[in-house]
C-alpha cells in the first residue's frame, strides 16, 4: 500500500517535470506581457501569504489541465476548473489528455503531502511563466485553491502577436494559504419563505467561490415544515403548505434534499440541517396535534411573531417522533452536524426546556451526529462536544465557553444577513441593528465579547427570510455582506483591512454580474462599473 503510494507520487512528479519541460520547449511565442503582479486585487478572502514574481502565465487555447490520478476527487477538480475557465474566458481546456500534450502551458492539480501541517483545506499555488502547480494534500484543499485561481484569471484577455490568439495573463508568484477558522458558514431560512432547489444551488455557486464550507438550512419553524419525513407525512402535507404573508409554502422531498446535499458536496460545502424545537414548532404541531405543549388552538401561521409555540416536553411520544425525524435526517445527511434550534422557547418552562434539550441531544448522538443549538442550549446540562451558536446572549456564549463547548459566532448585531443595511433598505429587519457593509466587515471575531479563540469553531451569517420571498431579494440582503464574512472567517486579523477589502470588493462586479447576482450596490463601495443595471436601486 505504502509502496504503491510512493510509486504513484514518483510518477506524478515525473509527469509534472515532463510537462513543464515540454511546455518550456514549446513556448516559442513572443508575448508582450503587461507587467503583472500578485497584488491580487480580486482575491477574497485574502490568502495567508503571497509572494509575487511579476511576470505572467499565458492562459490560452494551448493550456492543458492535468491532475493527480487515482486520488479521490482530484480528477473531478480538473473538470470543475475547466468548466469555470470556460464560463469566464470561453476557452475549452482539455483535462488529463493522454497523448503527449500539444500544449504550451499547463495547470497541474497535484496531491502532495505538505511538510507543515496547515490543515485539510490548505493549498499552495506556484505560478511561473509556463506552469501553474496547485499543491494540496486533500481534494478539498485543491478545491479552495481553484477558487483562488479562478479569481486571479483576469476578466479581459490581451491580443498576442499571432493574429487571432488571445491570452489571459495570470500573475506569477507563490500563494500559501489555509483558513483561520474551520467552520465558515451561512444559514438560509427556508421556513419563513420557501426557496427552491435551483435557488439554493445558485446560492451555493456563489458561496463556494468565496471558500465557504457550510450551508445551514433552517428547515422548520412556526410558519412551515420544509423537509419530507417519510414516517410522518403530514409534516409537509399540512405543515409545508403555508409561509409568511399567506403565500403557498413548499417543501423539499427527500430526493430534492439529497440533490442539494450532493450539489453542496461537489462544492465542498457541508449542509447542516436544522429542526428548530421545542419552540418555533407551530407547523409541526398543526400537522400532528399531540406534539403541542402550549394548550392553545392550532392553526397554520403566516405572521412573523416568535416565541408562542412549544412541543409538549413531557410526553414519550414526542421523543419517539423526534427520534424518527432525526433518524431520517441523519440518514440523508453525510455531514457531522444536526442543528436542533432551541432558541426563543418563551412558553416552555425552564425545567422542561432543560429536560428537552438533554433528551434530544442524546437522540442526535445516537445517530452519530454532533448537536448544534442556538446559544440558549448552553444553559442546560449539554455535553461539551455539542456546539452553541452565539446569536444573542453574551452570557450564554460565555457559559458555553466555560463548559468547554465550541462556539459558532453569529452575533445578530454584526453577522445577521437579514438586518437592513440602513434606514432606506428595501428588505430586512432592524431589531438588532442596521448593518452597513463596513460594519459587517469591521469587527474582530478572534476576540469577540471575550470568548477565548480556542472555543471558536468559526463564523456563520444567518439569513432569516421574514422579509424576502425570492432569490433576488435573498441576494439583495446576502450580497455583498456575505463576501465580507468569508474574509472574516478565512483570513487572519493581521491580514484584514477595510481599505484593501473595499477595493477588492468593488472588483467583484464582473463575477457577480456574470452570475446574475443582484447584490445591493452600497454607496460605501466604489463599484467597478460594468453594466449600468442598478439605476433603479440607486434611485431609492
Ligand atoms: C431571531 S436568531 C430568531 C429568528 C428570527 C430572527 C430575525 C434566532 C435564533 N431566532 O427566529 O427569524 O431573529 O432576525
Please tag this protein with its features.
eight-stranded parallel beta barrel, binds ligand TNX, eight-stranded mixed β-sheet, elongated, alpha/beta
SSE layout:
Layout: H1 2-26, E1 49-59, E2 63-67, H2 74-89, E3 94-95, E4 105-111, E5 123-127, E6 131-136, H3 139-152, E7 158-159, E8 166-177, E9 183-189, H4 197-209, E10 214-218, E11 220-221, E12 224-225, H5 234-237, H6 254-266, E13 270-277, H7 282-287, H8 316-332, E14 337-341, H9 350-366, E15 370-374, E16 387-390, H10 394-402, E17 406-409, H11 412-415, H12 437-441, E18 456-463, H13 471-478, H14 481-490, H15 498-506, H16 509-514, H17 535-539
Parallel strand pairs: 2-3, 2-4, 4-6, 9-10, 9-18, 10-13, 13-14, 14-15, 15-16, 16-17, 17-18
Antiparallel strand pairs: 1-8, 5-6, 5-8, 7-8, 11-12
Helix pairs in contact: 2-3, 4-6, 8-9
Ligand TNX binds next to loops.
Question: Would you write up a description of this structure?
Answer:
- This protein has helices at 2-26, 74-89, 139-152, 197-209, 234-237, 254-266, 282-287, 316-332, 350-366, 394-402, 412-415, 437-441, 471-478, 481-490, 498-506, 509-514, 535-539; strands at 49-59, 63-67, 94-95, 105-111, 123-127, 131-136, 158-159, 166-177, 183-189, 214-218, 220-221, 224-225, 270-277, 337-341, 370-374, 387-390, 406-409, 456-463.
- It is an alpha/beta fold.
- Strands 1, 2, 3, 4, 5, 6, 7 and 8 form an 8-stranded mixed sheet that branches. The chain has an 8-stranded parallel β-barrel with strand order 9-10-13-14-15-16-17-18, surrounded by 6 helices. Strands 11-12 form a two-stranded antiparallel ribbon.
- A hairpin with a 2-residue loop joins strand 11 (220-221) and strand 12.
- Helix 2 (74-89) runs parallel beside helix 3 and helix 8 (316-332) crosses helix 9 (350-366).
- Bound molecules: ligand TNX.
Amino acid at each position: 500500500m505504502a509502496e504503491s503510494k510512493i510509486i504513484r507520487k514518483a510518477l506524478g512528479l515525473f509527469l509534472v517535470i515532463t510537462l513543464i519541460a515540454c511546455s518550456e520547449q514549446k513556448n516559442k511565442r513572443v508575448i508582450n506581457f503587461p507587467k503583472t503582479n500578485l497584488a491580487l486585487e480580486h482575491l477574497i478572502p485574502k490568502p495567508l501569504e503571497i509572494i509575487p514574481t511579476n511576470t505572467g502565465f499565458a492562459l490560452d487555447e494551448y493550456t492543458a489541465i492535468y491532475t493527480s490520478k487515482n486520488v479521490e476527487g482530484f480528477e473531478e477538480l480538473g473538470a470543475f476548473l475547466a468548466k469555470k475557465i470556460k464560463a469566464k474566458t470561453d476557452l475549452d481546456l482539455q483535462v488529463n489528455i493522454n497523448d503527449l500534450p500539444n500544449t504550451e502551458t499547463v495547470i497541474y492539480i497535484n496531491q502532495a503531502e505538505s511538510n507543515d501541517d496547515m490543515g485539510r483545506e490548505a493549498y499552495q499555488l506556484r505560478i511561473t511563466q509556463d506552469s501553474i502547480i496547485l499543491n494540496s494534500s486533500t481534494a478539498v484543499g485543491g478545491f479552495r485553491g481553484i477558487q483562488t485561481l479562478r479569481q486571479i484569471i483576469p476578466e479581459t484577455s490581451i491580443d498576442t502577436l499571432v493574429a487571432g490568439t488571445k491570452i489571459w495573463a495570470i500573475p506569477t508568484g507563490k500563494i500559501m494559504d489555509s483558513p483561520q477558522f474551520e467552520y465558515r458558514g451561512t444559514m438560509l431560512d427556508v421556513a419563513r419563505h420557501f426557496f427552491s432547489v435551483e435557488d439554493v444551488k445558485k446560492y451555493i455557486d456563489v458561496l463556494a467561490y468565496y471558500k465557504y464550507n457550510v450551508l445551514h438550512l433552517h428547515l422548520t419553524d412556526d410558519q412551515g415544515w420544509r423537509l419530507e419525513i417519510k414516517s410522518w407525512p403530514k409534516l409537509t402535507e399540512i405543515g409545508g403548505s403555508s409561509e409568511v404573508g399567506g403565500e403557498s409554502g413548499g417543501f423539499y422531498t427527500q430526493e430534492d434534499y439529497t440533490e442539494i446535499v450532493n450539489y453542496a458536496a461537489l462544492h465542498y460545502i457541508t449542509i447542516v440541517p436544522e429542526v428548530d424545537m421545542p419552540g418555533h414548532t407551530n407547523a409541526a404541531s398543526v400537522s400532528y396535534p399531540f406534539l403541542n405543549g402550549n394548550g392553545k388552538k392550532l392553526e397554520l401561521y403566516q405572521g412573523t411573531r416568535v416565541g408562542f409555540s412549544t412541543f409538549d416536553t413531557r410526553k414519550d411520544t414526542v421523543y419517539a417522533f423526534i427520534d424518527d425525524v432525526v433518524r431520517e435526517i441523519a440518514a440523508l445527511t453525510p455531514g457531522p452536524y444536526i442543528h436542533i434550534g432551541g432558541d426563543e422557547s418563551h412558553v416552555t418552562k425552564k425545567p422542561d426546556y432543560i429536560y428537552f434539550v438533554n433528551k434530544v441531544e442524546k437522540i442526535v448522538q445516537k445517530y452519530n451526529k454532533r448537536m448544534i443549538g442556538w446559544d440558549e442550549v448552553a444553559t442546560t446540562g449539554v455535553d461539551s462536544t455539542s456546539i452553541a451558536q452565539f446569536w444573542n446572549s453574551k452570557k450564554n456564549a460565555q457559559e458555553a465557553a466555560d463548559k468547554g463547548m465550541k462556539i459558532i459566532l453569529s452575533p445578530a448585531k454584526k453577522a445577521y444577513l437579514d438586518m437592513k443595511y440602513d434606514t432606506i433598505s428595501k428588505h430586512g429587519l432592524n431589531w438588532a441593528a442596521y448593518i452597513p457593509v463596513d460594519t459587517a466587515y469591521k469587527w474582530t471575531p478572534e476576540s469577540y465579547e471575550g470568548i477565548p479563540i480556542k472555543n471558536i469553531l468559526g463564523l456563520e451569517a444567518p439569513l432569516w427570510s421574514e422579509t424576502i420571498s425570492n432569490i433576488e431579494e435573498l441576494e439583495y440582503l446576502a450580497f455583498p455582506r456575505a463576501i465580507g464574512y468569508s474574509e472574516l472567517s478565512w483570513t487572519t486579523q493581521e491580514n484584514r483591512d477595510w481599505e484593501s477589502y473595499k477595493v477588492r470588493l468593488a472588483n467583484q462586479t464582473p463575477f457577480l454580474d456574470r452570475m446574475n447576482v443582484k447584490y445591493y450596490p452600497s454607496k460605501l463601495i466604489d463599484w467597478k462599473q460594468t453594466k449600468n443595471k442598478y439605476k433603479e436601486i440607486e434611485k431609492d
